[in-house]
Every structure is written in structure tokens, then in C-alpha cells.
Amino acid sequence: MNRVMLIRVLVLVLLILVFWLGTRNMKLRPSRIQTAFEYMVGFVRNGIIYDTLGERIGKRYEPILFTFFFLILGMNLMGSIPGFQLAPTALIGLPLVMAVVSWGMFIYAGMREKGWRFWKDSLFVPGVPWFLYPLLAPLEFLSTFIVRPVTLTLRLTMNMLAGHMLAVLCFLATQFFFFTVLADGNLLGLLGIGSFAFAIVFTVLDLFVAVLQAYVFAILSAIYIQLAVAEEH
């Protein structure tokens, strides 16, 4: 149990608390807090799940897609909160686990809807001459079943790591210019004003990326399910 695991547990507890408080006393005339909560839930349900999968299939995979979005969002935001400043999604372990779950859900959805025909539709592209299948089938397998979970993992990890590192480097530069260079009477230390401004910009950008990556991971997972169950695939 290290600092990263403690932050993960804290995020999980906070998410449970937020959803419990948001649903325990809902009213027909909602308060501002209830309105904000319903907007967030509605955005994920309608904007990501139902718009991509439709209501019938969307309801089946709604819990796990909800979990993806809010868990990733909570973990990402911890990287910008003073005192924590560490996004657990910037370490490859958690994104890898979620990518494997998404990959398993994609295969499960295809097998549930199509049975063994799912593998035929995934590996053998319709309309392609049969003698090209030995060449194209391995490529389809690689792109569909290997590349997808890898890119889901790396996209989330690298985006959160890069944004956090840029902000940290700017804050460290600010500390160096103000408390080392300027403290010695060197006016070059005033460059710390610029590095501090860049640090604020990168912090705001990191917040935007935190929300965007939660959205991207959830909607890509939904799109992969849709591709698995669609008849043309």
C-alpha cells in the first residue's frame, strides 16, 4: 500500500460518496446540486452510451462504461489537486487493467450477439477476394485484438504523464528562478514569472485533458462494442 494506491482508494471512496449523496434524496424540482449531478449522468448515458450503442445494448453495458468514465475522471483530476498532484492513470498499471476489461467486453459483446460468426466477421473482410484472406486475416487480428487494447492503454497513460510532467517542470523552473537565481541578486530570476505563467497554462490544459481522456476512453470502448455487434462487421 503506497501513495499511489492510497490515492486510488481515496478516489473510489469519493466517487461512492458523490453518487450516494447525488441519489439519496432526489426531487421532482431539483436543486442546483441535483441538476449538476443529473447533467453529468445524462451526458455519459446519452452522449456516450445510448448515442453509440442504442438503448437496448447500451443498458447492458451501461454500468461498466459509467465506471470507466467517472473512475478515469476522478483519477485524472488528482494530478492537478495540490497536495496530491499524482494521477494514478499516469502509471501504466491501471490503464492496462481497464483496457483489458474493455477488450474482454468487446469480445463478450460480439460473441453474445453473433456467436462464433463474430470471429469470421472480425477477421475476414466482406468483399475481399478469398485468396487475400491469408494475408489480411492476420492483419485484422493484429489491429482488432492487439492494437486496440495497447492504444487504449498508452493513450491514457502518456497523455496524463506528459501533461503532469510539463506542469511539474514549469513549477520547478519557477522555484529555481525565484529562490536560487533571484535570491542571489541576478535579474535573470525574473524569468520565473514566465515559467510560472506557463505552469498555470499547463495546469489548466491538464484539467481539460483529464476530462477529455475520460471521455475518449469511454466512447472508444462503446464504439468497439458497437463494431462487435454491428452486422456489417
Average pLDDT over all residues = 86
Beta-strand segment tally? 0
Oligomer: single chain
Major sheet summary line:
none
Q: State the secondary-structure class.
A: mainly alpha
The H-and-E topology, N to C, reads as: HHHHHH
Radius of gyration, CA atoms, in whole angstroms = 22 Å
Terminal-residue CA separation: 44 Å
Q: Beta-strand level of the residues, as a percent range?
A: under 5%
Morphology call:
globular
Task: Provide a count of the helices.
Answer: 6
Number of domains: 1
Structure description:
The structure is a single chain. The protein has one domain. With 233 residues, it is mainly alpha-helical. It contains six helices and no strands.
Produce a short descriptive summary.
The chain has 233 residues and is mainly α. 79% of the residues lie in helices and 0% in strands.
Write the layout of secondary structure elements.
Blueprint: H1 3-23, H2 32-77, H3 93-114, H4 117-123, H5 133-181, H6 191-229
Helix pairs in contact: 1-2, 2-6, 3-5, 3-6, 5-6
Attribute tags:
233 residues; mainly alpha; 6 helices; 79% helix
